[in-house]
Amino acid sequence: MDIEKLEVWKSAMDLAETVYKITDKFPKTEIFGITDQIRRAAVSIPSNIVEGKGRDSAKDFVRFLNIAKGSLYELQTQCILSNKIGYLSQEDFRLIIKMCETLEHRLSALIKYLKHAN
């Protein structure tokens, strides 16, 4: 698959995988609460990247990359809350936030590149 060559997509997939592993430690009573919300946001990021890549124009790709960024911000907010209420350890919190920051930079760089390439 061509998308597998995109570093931004690979980073998003790594983040989603990490989120799934870490949220497996959350209380089972939260499986339909914050755990589900965090996982949906994490999966939405690479999903929107690949959907945008599959579109016919750079403009559409940029639109989906921006949606992915929105999901990334949603994920960060949910992780902050999870950390505050004690579901997410400081170590896991720092790991996810670091991965989010790296991904945010990659998304922003790709968006900037695509906007100026046209």
Automatic annotation (TrEMBL):
Database matches in Pfam families: 23S_rRNA_IVP
Top-level taxonomic group: Bacteria
UniProt keyword annotation of Ribonucleoprotein present: yes
GO cellular component terms attached to this protein's record: ribosome
Coiled-coil parts of chain: none
InterPro entries to which the protein is assigned, alphabetical: 23S_rRNA-intervening_sequence, 23S_rRNA_IVS_sf
This protein's UniProt keywords: Ribonucleoprotein, Ribosomal protein
NCBIfam families tied to this protein: four helix bundle protein, PRK12275.1-2
Annotated protein name in UniProt: S23 ribosomal protein
Species whose genome carries this gene: Kosmotoga olearia (strain ATCC BAA-1733 / DSM 21960 / TBF 19.5.1)
